[in-house]
């Protein structure tokens, strides 16, 4: 939500704390309280249905990834806005299904890493601490000097600072760039980096979807796939959205080993803002092909309540975990405590 830039630091703090509470069991009540707090401070009329936010065990929590944006700590230096982010790489284990656990590298205790967000022209300062056992780095997509390109390995126990301007606006990403890069990305060291345009986009319910794969037997083929970290999770825990409200998806394909996948939405068409780098949609479709590291903004509105799947149309990939669904609800649904 671009309007979140109008929130002051305390309000942003509240938002983060509430998300944290929601993740650790406050559930519906936490989520409802969160949006009650957010609403009065924003001019936006965006509303978000309540959702169960109980966290699965481990670093993968697809619900947390959906609507959680890290705006960093805002500072002013010589009249410039600095957004300072802290990213810590570590190791953890996630449970891909009841039988399969998988060792990953996480960033700030999550996979995918935090969705970093800034406004075009902000100065970005990323404090990177590597506690993940191997050498790693953070390579940001965007425009920056060579020495900030993040290809130099940072040893275990070491830290570094990446600093550059948030240019240009769009949906970008960051990831580890230590060889073998396929392995370092596939094991979790990636995240989305959104640079908002100078003129904010229209209010919308903004949702992050990151497609990834898991090669659990090291044969350079993925056995499992996921939206936001866990196979099948968003299929069993639908993403609740409001009927007749603009939905803005930020979608990233970071599936290694498969050259490209599509993203398909059921029973609707979406406007495509390729790489999020324009204010005007380029096309309308219901399936879009995305190579590795491609990412787009996709906008749509649902006019009928009910459940609607989204998935790559490489159906084997969908069947192995890259599956989710929206649950379109109406404002008078009694399960929505956010209603006034
Ligand atoms: Cu790495």
Can you put this structure into words, describing what you see?
The chain is of the alpha+beta class. The protein has helices spanning 9-41, 62-66, 181-186, 233-236, 315-319; strands at 73-77, 80-95, 101-107, 116-119, 123-130, 139-140, 159-165, 170-175, 190-196, 205-214, 224-227, 239-242, 247-253, 260-265, 270-274, 283-285, 287-291, 295-300, 306-311, 324-329. The longest helix has 33 residues, at 9-41. The protein is globular. Bound molecules: copper (II) ion.
Annotation keywords:
340 residues, alpha+beta, six-stranded mixed sheet, five-stranded mixed sheet, 5 helices, 20 strands, 16% helix, 36% strand, globular, disordered N terminus, binds copper (II) ion
Task: Provide a compact summary of the structure.
The chain has 340 residues and is of the alpha+beta class. It has helices spanning 9-41, 62-66, 181-186, 233-236, 315-319, and strands at residues 73-77, 80-95, 101-107, 116-119, 123-130, 139-140, 159-165, 170-175, 190-196, 205-214, 224-227, 239-242, 247-253, 260-265, 270-274, 283-285, 287-291, 295-300, 306-311, 324-329. Helix content is 16%, strand content 36%.
